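Re: export button greyed out
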Amino acid sequence: MVNIAVLGYGTVGSGVVEVIRTNQAIINKHAGDEVHIKYVLDLREFEGDPIQEILVHNFDVILQDEDVKVVVEVMGGEEPAHRFVKQALEAGKSVCTSNKEMVAKYGAELIQVAKEHKVNFLYEASVGGGIPIIRPLISSLTCDDITEVTGILNGTTNYILTKMRDEGSAFEEVLKEAQEKGYAERNPEADIEGYDACRKIAILTSLVCGRQVDYEDVHTEGISQITKTDFLYAKALKGSIKLLGTYRRIEDKVYVMVAPFIISEQHPLYHVNDVFNAIFVHGNMLDDAMFYGRGAGKLPTASAVVSDVVDEVKHMGKNIMQIWETGKLELGNFDEWKHKFLVRIHSEDIDDVNMDDVKKAFGDVLYMKADGVKNETAFVTKPMEEGAFREAVKQFPGVLSTIRVGF
Amino acid sequence: MVNIAVLGYGTVGSGVVEVIRTNQAIINKHAGDEVHIKYVLDLREFEGDPIQEILVHNFDVILQDEDVKVVVEVMGGEEPAHRFVKQALEAGKSVCTSNKEMVAKYGAELIQVAKEHKVNFLYEASVGGGIPIIRPLISSLTCDDITEVTGILNGTTNYILTKMRDEGSAFEEVLKEAQEKGYAERNPEADIEGYDACRKIAILTSLVCGRQVDYEDVHTEGISQITKTDFLYAKALKGSIKLLGTYRRIEDKVYVMVAPFIISEQHPLYHVNDVFNAIFVHGNMLDDAMFYGRGAGKLPTASAVVSDVVDEVKHMGKNIMQIWETGKLELGNFDEWKHKFLVRIHSEDIDDVNMDDVKKAFGDVLYMKADGVKNETAFVTKPMEEGAFREAVKQFPGVLSTIRVGF
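Workaround output, generated via the alternate export path:
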């Protein structure tokens, strides 16, 4: 029997308890041992819930119990989660977590501490919820030079963008509806401004590049500026708008960003709709691959957490090798990263636009029209450096909006 | 340094050599040791190719060399591959393979032999080419009750079906074109009659259920009977035709089959086109997930093979637990499995069809039309047992074709 402790009895924590109780026999078989929840840590009381019997309020009870071999951290937030996890690892307990904030900030450190103490620190659920992506990166995609990872990493924003596209609704309308349905938080900033996706792409990039990517270094844009009209242009381009977290390695420089992109219907991520998430990976041997599933939700996320518990039970006394070293990875200069952009300019008529001025500012562009849009002129640039493009937009009169075009 | 031997210098074998030579540094880093190809076994000579220096023609050289710790079997076919693999495992060498025929037939046995000798037998590339699916099933989806696995498991047939849909071409035309492009073999039976997909779904089902599924027990239909007209109906149903290998567990009975299905554009497999493969998995906690990528091709397949080499180097002296026991898994009675069917009947006019007779034979059905189709009446049944449906078709006059509807 292997005793585990669950820190936090919120959505994911209660999911972890439910997954283990429902699939106990399957889990034991895969773990090769009985997985037993000895403690649940939470500051609250849960009268009437069977877990009340194993509820503790003081982390030291867990830390000092040598019988506890695996600690499941599903409290969220940076502290005290980070302190508890570090103490548990130092006490010779393996830890798994769904906490993306903590993993993004302290991943390299905690992997190192785990290694030193011959235990494991795993975090499958921190990116892509139930989708197996961390373990495939650690143990399957081990003989490829991975030059791109691009993901739809946030279910709330993907739900909003899918609704905007399919129903022609405005951002605010759909956000309100998503909040009513519980798909978006009352304070939705972390999702809609891309902060959640930013931490996730920082984690994936760190793992692929083998060194710490600080999420503060990741250029991050959200979706709150996206309009119905942007979707009309996306449609005219036979594409759709998706909030992407993307890592690219170009000429040995690593670039990372989160931003809305128009992607083509030919791209496998185009078909990832509603609250689903997916991570697209390109390797020099593998070519293209994609991992798809539920990026959030109590049970899918808990399923990923418990798969880490099983792996840790299978690897008692043996550290699973992970290449994510401390020491900051220097990113390429964002201003030099090249993208194509859709640019919308206010104009009563296309004749009002001085094409020479456009060419001077943006180079050769492709003018385009979208059904149902008036009083605008729009064009798609060739690949331009981010810095030069931003400068051109600042100088050019009447720019309504811009959005990157990913094909 | 870990010495490996590659059995077979055909497409995949030369791919394995190329993957290791191109990504040597990455591979060594993940393996935690230098991966070195000591021998390549092939009956042929390869004058001018650098591998000629390490080429051997006699397997015993490899078998008797204690320095060889990992054997890569990429010869294909059942024998002598199976004999070589078994001997290698018994000699204390880990083995990995891309050979689906051998894995489908001898998987349980070879896993058992590996376990007894504290080595590993891995076969990531035997299903889905470069797509990580075997390892995720073994080590990620360990806490779910997996009730469905459905895959587009054969690139050749998916290419043909995609072309038929997009270009409105006939099967024979597209097959010929695929053969010219090298996407289909000159003798394409194994692909187009579903035999290849059959072995792959047998492997996946064995792994998910933990016991040997004999591929001979899997009901298998190919795509050679699919016509342009079938695609017109699929389109009218807002779906497309895909060759699926599918495992389902329904009321504790396991059903497995390979057959063309009409699937809805809402299904994630709908968007898997051309030579791409994907495997859809449903678990009771995970909900839906999908793994997508290149199901064949020299380098993607070799990338999966070498990922097994890396895993085996990381697990020297330690058997990776796999639950796939010998002893045949009894499948549910295929005739009792229920599906919806599209039935096309010859008729000059819908008035020629006696709806009472249809109802008597097929129960309540939904009549439908497809643009561009004449002199036919078509309907979709409610879910019917396979046996009863087959009997009804036999009795009913003028049935032109039938195809399962997966939604």
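The mean pLDDT of chain A is 97. The button fix ships in the next patch.
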